[in-house]
């Protein structure tokens, strides 16, 4: 534009200014759309906290999840292990072993144990305010209620932020600061890997554009460069640059994130979408992810004086939270009466007490049109519902009122909780202690069978023998083989004070084994289909769970993670896997598909083992201890119900905790990757076509010895901006290809492969060659080859042949490029088999832009003054012929690739509706890998 105005070519300058304005407007609009989508997603992904408030005019305060930004002083916030404290607050009574990591405030590396008693000192430092929790701290242990005292900038961390703002930010100086600023502006820093590669490509093309401009100027010998040549040099340089490439990529990724949010997948970092496309392993938890997560107790087993013990079966209705259903003794074939368990089944009494009291889940009675509600861990909820069914509702045992109609055992004294050691995944158990009102303490223990048995010394009123342990573990295996998650329970009574004991001291020994509970968590209906989709997509699903090996194996077989016949090494426990050295793990033929009793450290070792094999993985997690594995994985996937720490360590959050949502995200990632490849192929091959015409056209000379351009500068910019831009954006929203989930992950790790480059130059040279051939045919086949005088700058009598040839060249290039956008929809499938109406946006772009060719050709002034072309007549026959040549050349090229791939054993994808179906190419090479 500046060059055109500088040489006083007002028409060209005005048109170029308009095209630049249009291009900038489109780029700005796409960036704004992307930023708006990202901002909306940020609102969806805003941190939340559980606050006790009155809802819908109710007189009873209920826990509810609210955005952290909506918390105000005076709110009661419920904190638990793994939470990030949302505001400063004072700890209320009833806390349970609360510890918080406040290293960011105090520098103290160890967690701080909190208390509800106020601290008397007025000028007490932050680290000694034991009755306070502070915004940003992480709860490392226990749970508590706190009343909010300060939010936002009124918190301790807010005061630090104010001090930093007033002091000013410290930054790098001199050249280092300038260089970093330059990289940020060029898009080479503070960006995703994909954006980095695209920005690097754009910079490389910019360098090539400068060289192109120099080549054009060199055609004059650098002597008295005409103003038209200077303008043409700029146009040729611009033809090297794909229009709005980075903006289209940003919009495509943002739109994909918005679509994933509707499918319960919250993308925290945009680069996760591109990373998901190339993963070849998904390591998933079982409970709540592969399974429904709404658990019910199916079986309880209690040891008795005889050898076999007694098994009780629990029935449930359609509502798993409704505390109604029959409890029947299998051996005696009799049903128990709620509230009379102590009389009818004395051996079940203590186990029922333990399932009720060693539990923090809360059941809420129906309100209005809603059913029973539960607040707490799904496992504890299932145990609490079972306790209600037996007549051991926790509220009655601790002296609270119960809803009408709930039957309970006679309560002679109430229990007051004094100690709780919350469930810890490293020891796989929890313990709790109650004061019984007579000066003693009743303690309960629950957890994994082997971890609880290790603390027990008695069972069924006698000393526990090795035979007892073996029989209990055999019973665990029996229940687990039914697909039940098995928990063990124990109790002990102490006269001595337990409030000062550490976890290890309390849980070490002296416990009496009470029994087992088998909890059923059915697989999600969609899990089997999602696992099958993984196999089709050459992705290996793995289950890493804390459950018993038999339980994990049963579920894995049900949903297809394990085949019907599998080697012994396919299932391991975390202890077995961790006992292997890295060298031994690397020598395994295949890594295990199921790891039971899996600890968080085991997940990290699994990720590292996969990386050593050159594989990429997505890892799910929900706990604080899962955060190292989430961060180490290529894509960390946190559960929406998980801890804040896990969410912050992940790139993606599943708001529905559903494994199938991960596969939806992988499918979306692959579709985005393919669409990026499609519109990049379209734009770059169009650039090659334009450049072919413009550079080879320098060989044509007029009567004055100057080059005569096959495309005018305005025509070149028109093709580069309008012919390339809208179809490229339409390709960015192309529906998923039929083979997107049948190609191996390696096909989705880089766009600029050898196959892509061959396609790029084939199509580009085909487009440019056809246009140039038509220019030559008109000039030398119909006209005598006289290029006139001054035809690059204005219209005169000698320029009619050049103008008509130029019009033919432009029409050929524009129409064939638009048809080329349809061919770019797939690398091997014929456009006629794909169908034209599956992407209506692209179809309308092609139709409208083809129609726009005619006004340019025939409206006076626009044709001969702006575009420097003339009206066409018989030349349309040449254009039509080249259209047929292009269609034949592109379809023949695809056919040749399909034949070549079949000969090399590469299964080519088929179009939708092909009765032969889509073939999986999990172990085959792909087009992109060639």
TrEMBL record:
Residues 709-895 form the Cation-transporting P-type ATPase C-terminal domain. It comes from the Eukaryota. The keyword Glycoprotein does not apply. PANTHER family: CALCIUM-TRANSPORTING ATPASE. It comes from Cutaneotrichosporon spelunceum. Keywords: ATP-binding, Cell membrane, Ion transport, Magnesium, Membrane, Metal-binding, Nucleotide-binding, Phosphoprotein, Potassium, Potassium transport, Sodium, Sodium transport, Translocase, Transmembrane, Transmembrane helix, Transport. Gene3D superfamilies: Calcium-transporting ATPase, cytoplasmic domain N, Calcium-transporting ATPase, cytoplasmic transduction domain A, Calcium-transporting ATPase, transmembrane domain, HAD superfamily/HAD-like. One of its GO terms (biological process) is sodium ion transport. Residues 54-165 form the P-type ATPase A domain. The keyword Signal does not apply. It is found in: Cell membrane. InterPro entries: ATPase_P-typ_cation-transptr_C, ATPase_P-typ_cyto_dom_N, ATPase_P-typ_P_site, ATPase_P-typ_TM_dom_sf, ATPase_P-typ_transduc_dom_A_sf, ATPase_P-type_domA, HAD-like_sf, HAD_sf. It is a multi-pass membrane protein. This is Cation-transporting P-type ATPase C-terminal domain-containing protein. GO terms for cellular component: plasma membrane. The chain crosses the membrane at residues 201-220, 232-254, 679-700, 760-783, 803-820, 841-862, 874-893. GO terms for molecular function: ATP binding; ATP hydrolysis activity; ATPase-coupled monoatomic cation transmembrane transporter activity; inorganic cation transmembrane transporter activity; metal ion binding; P-type ion transporter activity.
């Amino acid at each position: 534009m500046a060059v055109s105005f500088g040489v006083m070519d007002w028409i060209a300058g005005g048109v170029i200014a308009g095209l630049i304005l249009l291009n900038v407007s489109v780029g700005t609009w796409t960036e704004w759309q992307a930023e708006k989508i990202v901002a909306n997603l940020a609102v969806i992904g805003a941190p939340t906290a559980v606050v006790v408030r009155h809802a819908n005019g109710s007189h009873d305060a209920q826990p509810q999840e609210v955005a952290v930004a909506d918390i105000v002083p005076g709110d009661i916030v419920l904190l638990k292990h793994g939470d990030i404290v949302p505001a400063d607050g004072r700890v209320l009574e009833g806390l349970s072993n609360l510890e918080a990591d406040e290293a960011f405030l105090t520098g103290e590396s160890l967690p701080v144990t909190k208390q509800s008693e106020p601290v008397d000192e007025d000028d007490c430092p932050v680290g000694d305010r034991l009755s306070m929790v502070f915004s940003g701290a992480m709860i490392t242990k226990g749970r508590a209620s706190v009343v909010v005292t300060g939010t936002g900038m009124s918190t301790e961390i807010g005061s630090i932020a104010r001090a930093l703002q007033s002091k000013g930010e410290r930054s790098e100086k001199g050249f280092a600061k300038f260089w970093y600023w330059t990289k940020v502006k060029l898009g080479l820093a503070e960006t995703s890997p994909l954006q980095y590669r695209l920005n690097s490509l754009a910079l490389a093309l910019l360098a090539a554009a400068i060289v192109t401009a120099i080549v054009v100027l060199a055609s004059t010998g650098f002597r008295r460069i005409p103003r038209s040549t200077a303008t043409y040099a700029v146009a040729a340089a611009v033809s090297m640059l794909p229009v709005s490439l980075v903006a289209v990529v940003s919009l495509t990724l943002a739109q994909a994130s918005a679509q994933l949010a509707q499918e319960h997948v919250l993308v925290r970092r945009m680069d996760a979408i591109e990373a998901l496309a190339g993963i070849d392993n998904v390591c998933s938890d079982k409970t709540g992810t592969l399974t429904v997560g709404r658990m019910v107790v199916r079986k309880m087993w209690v040891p008795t004086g005889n050898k076999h013990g007694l098994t009780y079966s629990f029935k449930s209705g359609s509502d798993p939270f409704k505390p109604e259903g029959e409890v029947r003794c299998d051996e005696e074939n009799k049903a128990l009466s709620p509230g009379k368990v102590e009389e009818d089944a004395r051996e079940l009494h203590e186990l029922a007490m333990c399932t009720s009291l060693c539990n923090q889940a809360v059941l809420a009675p129906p309100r209005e049109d809603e059913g029973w509600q539960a607040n707490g861990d799904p496992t504890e909820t299932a145990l609490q519902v079972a306790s209600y069914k037996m007549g051991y509702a926790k509220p009655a045992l601790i002296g609270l009122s119960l809803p009408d109609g709930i039957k309970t055992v006679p309560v002679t004294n109430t229990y007051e909780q004094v100690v709780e050691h919350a469930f810890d995944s490293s020891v796989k158990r929890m313990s709790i202690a109650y004061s019984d009102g007579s000066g003693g303490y009743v303690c309960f223990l629950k957890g994994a069978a082997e971890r609880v048995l290790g603390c027990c010394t008695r069972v069924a009123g006698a000393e526990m023998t090795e035979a007892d342990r073996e029989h209990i573990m055999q019973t665990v295996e029996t229940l687990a083989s039914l697909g039940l998650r098995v928990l063990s329970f124990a109790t002990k009574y102490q006269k001595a004070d337990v409030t000062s004991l550490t976890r290890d001291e309390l849980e070490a020994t002296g416990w009496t084994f009470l029994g087992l509970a088998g909890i059923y968590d059915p697989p999600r209906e969609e899990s089997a289909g999602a696992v099958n989709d993984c196999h089709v997509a050459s992705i290996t699903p793995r289950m890493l769970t804390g459950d018993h090996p038999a339980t994990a194996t049963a579920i894995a077989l049900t949903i297809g993670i394990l085949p019907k016949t599998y080697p012994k090494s396919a299932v391991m426990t975390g202890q077995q896997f961790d006992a292997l050295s890295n060298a031994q793990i690397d020598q395994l033929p295949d890594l295990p598909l199921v790891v039971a009793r899996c600890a968080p450290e085991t997940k990290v070792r699994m990720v590292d083992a996969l990386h050593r094999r050159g594989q990429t993985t997505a890892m799910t997690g929900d706990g604080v201890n899962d955060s190292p594995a989430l961060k180490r994985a290529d894509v960390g996937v946190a559960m929406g119900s998980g801890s804040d720490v896990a969410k912050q360590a992940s790139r993606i959050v599943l708001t529905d905790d559903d494994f199938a949502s991960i596969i939806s995200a992988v499918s979306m990632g692959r579709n985005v990757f393919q669409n990026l490849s499609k519109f990049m192929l379209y734009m770059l091959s169009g650039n090659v076509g334009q450049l072919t015409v413009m550079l080879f056209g320098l060989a044509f000379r007029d009567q004055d010895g100057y080059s005569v351009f096959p495309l005018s500068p305005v025509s070149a910019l028109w093709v580069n901006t309008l012919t390339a831009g809208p179809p490229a954006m339409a390709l960015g929203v192309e529906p998923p290809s039929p083979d997107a989930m049948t190609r191996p992950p390696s096909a989705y790790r880089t766009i600029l492969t050898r196959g892509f480059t061959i396609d790029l130059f084939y199509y580009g040279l085909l487009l440019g060659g056809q246009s140039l051939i038509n220019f030559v045919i008109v000039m030398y086949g119909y006209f005598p080859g006289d290029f006139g005088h001054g035809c690059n700058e204005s219209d005169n009598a000698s320029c009619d042949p050049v103008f008509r040839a130029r019009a033919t060249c432009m029409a050929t290039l524009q129409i064939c490029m638009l048809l080329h956008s349809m061919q770019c929809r797939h690398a091997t499938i014929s456009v006629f088999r794909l169908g034209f109406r599956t992407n209506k946006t692209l179809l309308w772009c092609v139709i409208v832009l083809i129609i726009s060719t005619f006004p340019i050709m025939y409206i006076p002034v626009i044709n001969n003054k702006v575009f420097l072309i003339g009206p066409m007549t018989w030349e349309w026959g040449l254009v039509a012929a080249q259209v047929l040549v292009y269609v034949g050349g592109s379809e023949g090229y695809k056919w040749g690739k399909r034949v070549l791939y079949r000969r090399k054993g590469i299964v080519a994808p088929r179009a939708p509706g092909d009765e032969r179906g889509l073939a999986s190419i999990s172990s085959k090479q792909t087009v992109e890998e060639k």
